[in-house]
Amino acid sequence: MTATIEAAPPQSLTDHFLHSFDLAHGMVLQLAEDFDDASARLAPAPHKPLVWFLGHLTCSTDYFSTLHQGTESLVTEEFSRRYAGNDNQDWSIGPSLEEMIDLYKAVHARMREFVAGLTPSDLDKESPLEPFGDDRLKNLGKALAIIQMHDAYHCGQVGCLRVALGKHVPF
Q1: What is the pLDDT at residue 131?
Q2: What average pLDDT score do residues 131-141 get?
Q3: Quick check: helix, strand or coil at residue 115?
Q4: CA distance 29 to 60
Q5: Label partner for 58 (CA 20 to 30 A): which of 52, 73, 128, 156?
């Protein structure tokens, strides 16, 4: 007997992008659930702490918004300098875990609203601003794909951090 696989109902491109964008975001939040302020700042070598991941992902999504939505940044220059790159810092200082999660959610919500209004023809648009360091971010469709992959990539690293800290990975 041969099994028949039915095709899924067609999905709009916008729904596809929103699903992918929300999936990685939700996974990061799920991985952060059982951290507290102290454990969110711990990271055995060679890992980065959870607060860095949250700040880094916030910076990248915020940067996308400034490039393609023309919005003002939701993060300060100091915040961006601290979390956008890979430098090691004194992670014992900085916003609380709750503040970091709230900012990550706010940046996601702002971009989600923008993505929900996109049409397929919008994906070919170019940012009027010059991207810093990565020309692939100039095109809206490419930048959107990169930001989704970026969150998913770091989600895997947060999973590795959890294992290094003796925590269970929930998925």
Answers
A1: 80
A2: 85
A3: helix
A4: 16
A5: 128
